[in-house]
């Protein structure tokens, strides 16, 4: 093992790159509240920190599972915690394995153009005198976390809790920018609801999915921070810090849940508006159909009235030889009277039935 780390760690720089040039392994040793500049490998750094009564921070960035598992094993971390760090998680998490603690954080960023929430993952394994962070994305920059710890020695005196607290603070602060972006898009959706934009329901569905992903990352945070505070009861300052962080995490979780309700209501309102428009169109169509029926009635009525004289005239147009009224002087007036009588009778019937 010493030969392996000798190949991976050469010189005195604190950051090392190896293999394909992507993986970064960073070690920092803090003794007496001050960072100690060393080029030690993780095992030696951990030994040095514990011998000096300080702590070591081992950061694996974009590391493969083999390196993560090997490093955790060499550092003597709990095997279950080591296995947990090898799989991806969809929620923030806190687990205790003996003296070791395993924490999962889900930092998020919002792509406003695509309206998508992109969550990354930070796995944190904490052991007495040691904290190891595992990130598999180069989008997560731990430099500001390291600078914050090193710029405030009063933080470093809390040991591994200092690094863990700054990580939580950075992640929770990052959620606010994400929430602002999502809320802005929700406001736009509310403005679109009363328009005829056919893309509104799809936009609501897509944003709902992103908010649900964000809820997976934020909803467990208050409980995680409560458990961390309970684990730090011996340190009153640390317990107070965790309680403050828990309050801010609860605020974030409440905002996310409020967004979910808003989007659910928006979808309900949109469905109601669509149904209302359909009802209005059906009502208009019904009015048109009623008007058409009235016109058909009138046309049919006048057609029947006009057919009565035509029927009588057609009978007399058959040229039968033996028709008794043909030779009578009252035959022609009788035929005309019959036409008028039939037409007047039909007109009265249709008028009484409101067809005319």
Query: What oligomeric state do the depicted chains represent?
Result: single chain
Order of helices and strands: HEEEHEHHEEEEEEHHHHHHH
Number of alpha- plus pi-helical segments: 11
Count of folded domains = 2
Structural Rg: 42 Å
> Share of helix among residues?
55-70%
Catalytic activity: Mg(2+)(in) = Mg(2+)(out)
GO cellular component, one term: plasma membrane
Main location: membrane
GO molecular function: cobalt ion binding; cobalt ion transmembrane transporter activity; magnesium ion binding; magnesium ion transmembrane transporter activity
Overview of this structure, please?
The protein has 356 residues and is α+β, with helices and mostly antiparallel strands. It has two domains: 2-275, 2-Layer Sandwich (Beta Polymerase, domain 2); 283-352, Up-down Bundle (Methane Monooxygenase Hydroxylase, Chain G, domain 1). Helices cover 60% and strands 15% of the residues. The strands form two sheets. Strands 1, 2, 3, 4, 5, 6, 9 and 10 form an eight-stranded mixed β-sheet that branches. Strands 7-8 form a two-stranded antiparallel sheet. Helix 7 (160-192) packs antiparallel against helix 8 (200-218). The N and C termini lie far apart (106 Å). Mean pLDDT is 79; it is low at 1-22. Keywords: Cell membrane, Ion transport, Magnesium, Membrane, Transmembrane, Transmembrane helix, Transport. It catalyses: Mg(2+)(in) = Mg(2+)(out). It is a multi-pass membrane protein.
